[in-house]
Design brief:
The protein has 152 residues and is of the alpha/beta class. Helices cover 43% and strands 18% of the residues. The chain has a single domain, classed as TIM Barrel, CATH 3.20.20. Strands 1-2-3-4-5-6 form a six-stranded parallel beta sheet. Helix 2 crosses helix 3 (50-59) and helix 6 (118-127) packs across helix 7 (137-147). The protein is globular.
């Protein structure tokens, strides 16, 4: 299993790294690791535990953050903003045009997770999402190239 440092060493300067916080009390250590590697502008720190996202901002307000949702709360965009996040990360099975529009109206980046299906990737790009999470970056890159649209 690669460490966070292994991933940083592999990807630094080539792509945005999404770091999902899962363990409790790791916020400060993760922010320090990001700062030590000089990648504050190359990461998005996310969590299903929205209070952890808010805590990241206390250590470094410049770090981009996003809140993860499995289902679809009534006001996901407001919840993301309340957590101090710049991004709303929704499961592809709950995404629709209304959620993307609403997130953008709140000034949020709307990021979809997780799909390896090219047809679903095309649908998400057409929907206007800002990023797509996938275990198959090779497929995703091919789809993005044919759509001639940059994802963040």
């Amino acid at each position: 299993m690669p460490t966070l440092q292994d991933v940083i060493d592999l990807v630094k300067g080539q792509a945005v790294i999404q770091i999902e916080l899962k363990g409790l009390g790791v916020e400060e250590a993760v922010v320090k690791k990001v700062e030590e590697n000089g990648i504050v502008d190359e990461v998005v720190i996310t969590s299903f535990r929205h209070y952890m996202v808010r805590k990241v901002k206390t250590f470094n307000p410049r770090v981009s953050t996003g809140v993860l949702f499995l289902g679809l709360p009534l006001d996901a965009s407001r919840l993301a903003r309340d957590a101090g996040a710049e991004g709303l990360h929704a499961n592809v099975n709950y995404l629709d045009g209304h959620l993307v529009e609403d997130g953008h109206r709140y000034g949020l980046k709307v990021r979809a997770w997780n799909t390896d299906n090219p047809e679903q990737m095309r649908w998400l790009i057409d929907l206007g999402v800002d990023a797509i999470g996938s275990n198959r970056p090779d497929i995703l890159m091919d789809v993005v190239k044919t759509h001639n649209r940059k994802l963040v």
